[in-house]
Amino acid sequence: MESIGGQLRSARESKGITFEQIYRDTNIPKKYLEAMEAEDFSQFPGETYLLGFMRSYSDYLGLDSKDLISLYKSIKIQEQPVPMEQLLRDPKPANRIPFIIALVAVVLIIGGGLFFIFRPKQDTVAAEQKVRKPVEYTLSGGTLEKRYYIGDTTILQLDTQKYKIEVSQITDRVVLTSPVGDTAVELGQEIPLDINADGTADVKIFVADLVKNKSDKGVVLRMAMDKAAGSEIASTENSTAAASTGTNNSTENTVTTSVAEATPSNPAPANAPVLLSSPNPYPFTLQATFKGNCLLRWESDRKDRDERYFQKADILNVQAQNGIRLWLSNASAVKFQVIGGGKTVDVEIGSPGEVVVTDLKWVKDDDGRYKLTTVRLD
């Protein structure tokens, strides 16, 4: 069988394609393309990068990526020495107990399968007809953070009166129906609502997570009634932006902590880009849209570190209160945007093919304002 590098080289040369053209089409750096054809796998920072690039390169050339990756793994296994004790071990007499156990297991599996095939189908029909019932939450003070779906409601208790806030639509934004009418809120935006029309905001609602045009995914809303759990409202050109003052809340996709990085002793670098600016820091969302294959690791507010391998057209939303640390294998393979305070701002992380580690965080500058900026880490 032809080697991995030989298959890649033959396919590329037969198509008359240069490394430069492949880089433009796949965002795989030239040095990694050459390393794969030379089978110099030590050039890769890790096996995850190697397998991801090998899959993309072979698919691009029209080869079977599964066969190439299987060939690579079999080579790795052959390179590992067999332990001497296994070679010298005396063969043991045949043991019939595993065979008997396997036979019993097969009989049980067949019997269970026949039971499920021939049993009455009433339970199955009932399960298919089961429809999710709207959930009702109650908030009389403090903060409530839940994942809502269309039809879910929150009953707001104000003194002796109760007011209902319902999630009526989830598209590219969430529409909330309340006594004040329909209110549309976007991802990363926080709004105040005066439910009882007394001239004072009764609740602040922040959209922490939203997958656009996928209502089945729901939406994470954070509702705060008191100042300690809520935030100040800072006016901007287009909308209001919320500033958190210290209550810690967490859900499956959102982490909120007290402001730790935004301090006078940690000013923004002189040449750092200013993405957002406000008298107070507020929650924001980083949206990553992938233009090519990329390994991305992220850590929100110094918690919840995660790592995934993404492909073209994948989208990731990460929420944070203070900052996000990013590790990525190819800066040109991702388009980053910051969403917060009713604004959407593009973020430049690095140059094509560059492996980047950077912080996206709020810092307090000498002028006393908080600025959301990027800080490269060497």
TrEMBL record:
Alphabetical keyword list: Membrane, Transmembrane, Transmembrane helix
Ranges annotated as spanning the membrane: 97-118
Region (Disordered) residue spans: 232-272
InterPro entries: Bact_Cytoskel_RodZ, Lambda_DNA-bd_dom_sf
Gene3D superfamilies linked to this entry: lambda repressor-like DNA-binding domains
MF terms in GO: DNA binding
One Pfam match: HTH_25
The protein's name in its UniProt record: Helix-turn-helix domain-containing protein
Species for this entry: Gracilinema caldarium (strain ATCC 51460 / DSM 7334 / H1)
